[in-house]
Design a protein that fits this description.
Layout: E1 15-17, E2 20-22, E3 29-34, E4 39-45, H1 49-68, H2 71-87, H3 89-100, H4 104-124, E5 131-133, E6 141-148, E7 151-155, H5 163-175, E8 178-182, H6 188-200, E9 208-210, H7 215-227, E10 231-237, H8 240-249, E11 256-260, E12 265-269, H9 275-286, E13 297-303, H10 307-319, H11 339-354, E14 358-361, E15 377-380, H12 387-390, E16 397-403, H13 406-414, E17 418-419, E18 421-425, H14 429-438, E19 443-446, E20 461-462, E21 465-466, E22 479-486
Parallel strand pairs: 7-8, 7-10, 8-9, 10-11, 12-13, 12-18, 13-16, 15-16, 18-19
Antiparallel strand pairs: 1-2, 3-4, 5-6, 6-22, 11-21, 14-15, 17-20
Helix pairs in contact: 1-7, 2-4, 2-5, 2-6, 3-4, 3-6, 4-5, 9-10
């Protein structure tokens, strides 16, 4: 089955700046590659600092009017945008599968997930409350009001081309901010289509500006936003190394930052767990998007008394996964994003085997399917000396670590600089309270592998970043608090 668009006009190759589709200032382009075939999907604008600056100019011009709109007026536009996203699900999913590689079923799910943030923040736009502070001195009235922070720069990764940018843009727009955005170099097409639908929904010119860029030019574009004091906030999802760079380089203008960074999620299976449910949880958490997620389990800890049984159950489920391109409707795992990703996965598996691990299933490149495929893999005998213990594999590899007791596994789970997500399975309600309290992570799944929701706060601790996306807390990072003290009232 060939992947085709119903609305071919949703495939945009230009930037959206000030409501107009324009080429990069120097007319440069770069290719977007389909990871399933290594063929070119489209050539898009390759933007640099000049284009980023033009986007900021447009956002600055649009900000006063957008800020002053009634919250319900902003909400109405967001609701129309949501309706258009849902209406164009199939085309958005097709674009996503073409440039990112995930199976169509997953792409459709991501469209619905991303759209849910737009709908959520459409409602939240009308619920930005301030406070009247109880009177402290006679003749004075003190109030606190929340105002949009200003221009927001959104920088997103390739693994969720629609959801990541929707959950950054939607709260910014709901709060009354204007946005300049740069999607990942590998996956700009879905984001550009999303921007086109926002424009179609009636979003005023300049409120949302989107530029595409390859790696070097993208660095220059982002550097312009970091140095520009008109950009008051950076929201970024990606590696910890890049997040630290953004924090350092934006310090001169004291921007507000939201950083969702790397993870090294533990998944703990206690001996009193429902093993069928725990296996299902690993399948949901680990193998979504082929393991290319920041919250997928990187270290699976299984208590000794159930270790062999769990390993056998999991390997049977993993071995049955269908690996195929998105054009195959039965595909459950697609290609990895590029050859670098495949090389890293292979390096991690080879290192694990050299350090004593056993491959129960998978453990090889699937070159018969194409250059960017790797077999879903289960490893037993994993230990702390392996790369899979200390680095994100970002692929369909499930290493199983053995543990003896609760104190030991808590120590092992927390023995990482990262703290984005963690999971554990147990039937003991007292253990649920203890372990949930002791695990160092911003998101914890308790007897659940699928934790994401637009109604829940998402973000990490330690070197996994700060700030929260989604939920009622998701607007806070796009707002500033102004205190007003009115005197002379007596």
């Amino acid at each position: 089955m060939a992947l085709k668009l119903t609305r071919s006009e949703l495939l945009h190759r230009q930037n959206l700046i000030g409501g107009k589709w324009v080429d990069a200032s120097d007319s440069a382009h770069y290719p977007v590659i389909n990871p399933a075939t290594d063929e070119i999907v489209a050539k898009v604008a390759n933007s640099g600092a000049a284009d980023a600056h033009a986007a900021t100019d447009a956002a600055e011009k649009a900000f006063p009017d957008w800020r002053d709109r009634l919250p319900r007026e902003r909400a109405e536009i967001l609701r129309r945008w949501h309706a258009l996203i849902v209406q164009n699900t199939e085309d958005l999913a097709t674009l996503m599968s073409m440039e990112q590689g995930k199976p169509l079923a997953e792409s459709r799910g991501e469209v619905a997930y991303g759209a849910s943030y737009v709908a959520w923040f459409a409602d939240e736009a009308t619920r930005i409350y301030g406070d009247i502070i109880p009177q402290q001195q006679r003749g004075k009235r003190m109030t606190a009001v929340k105002e949009p922070i200003g221009i927001v720069a959104a920088i997103t990764p390739w693994n969720f081309p629609l959801a990541m940018i929707a959950r950054k843009i939607a709260p910014a727009l709901a709060a009354g901010c204007t946005v300049v955005a740069k999607p990942a170099e590998d996956t700009p097409l879905t984001a550009l289509a999303l921007a086109a639908l926002a424009k179609e929904a009636g979003l005023p010119d300049g409120v949302l500006n989107m530029i595409a860029a390859a790696r070097d030019e993208g660095i220059a574009a982002v550097a312009d936003w970091l140095a520009d004091d008109r950009v008051r906030k950076i929201t970024f999802t990606g590696s910890t190394a890049v997040g630290k760079h953004l924090a350092r380089e934006s310090a001169s203008t004291l921007k507000k930052l939201s950083l969702e960074l790397g993870g090294n999620a533990p998944f703990i299976v206690f001996d009193d767990a429902d093993l069928e449910a725990a296996v299902a949880g690993v399948m949901a958490a680990k193998f979504r998007n082929g393991g290319q997620t920041c919250v997928c389990p990187n270290r699976i800890y299984v208590q000794s008394s159930v270790y062999e049984r769990f390993a056998d159950m999991l390997s049977k489920r993993v071995g049955a996964l269908k690996v195929a391109p998105a054009s195959d409707t039965s595909a459950q795992i697609g290609p990895m994003i590029n050859q670098r990703a495949i090389d890293k996965i292979a390096r991690h598996v080879d290192d694990a085997v050299e350090n004593g691990a056993t491959v129960l299933v998978g453990g090889r490149r699937l070159t018969e399917l194409g250059p960017n495929y790797y077999a879903p893999t289960v490893l037993t005998g994993a230990n702390v000396n392996m790369l899979v213990c200390c680095e994100e594999t970002f692929g369909p590899v499930a290493p199983l670590f053995r543990f003896e007791d609760e104190d030991e596994v808590i120590r092992l789970a927390n023995d990482t600089p990262f703290g984005l997500a963690a999971y554990f399975y147990t039937r003991d309600v007292r253990r649920i309270e203890r372990v949930g309290r002791r695990l160092e992570a911003g998101v914890i799944g308790v007897n659940e592998g699928a934790v994401a929701s637009e109604a829940a706060p998402f973000g990490g601790v330690k070197e996994s970043g700060y700030g929260r996306e989604g939920s009622k807390y998701g607007l806070d990072d796009y707002l500033s608090i102004k205190y007003l003290c009115q005197g002379g009232l007596d």
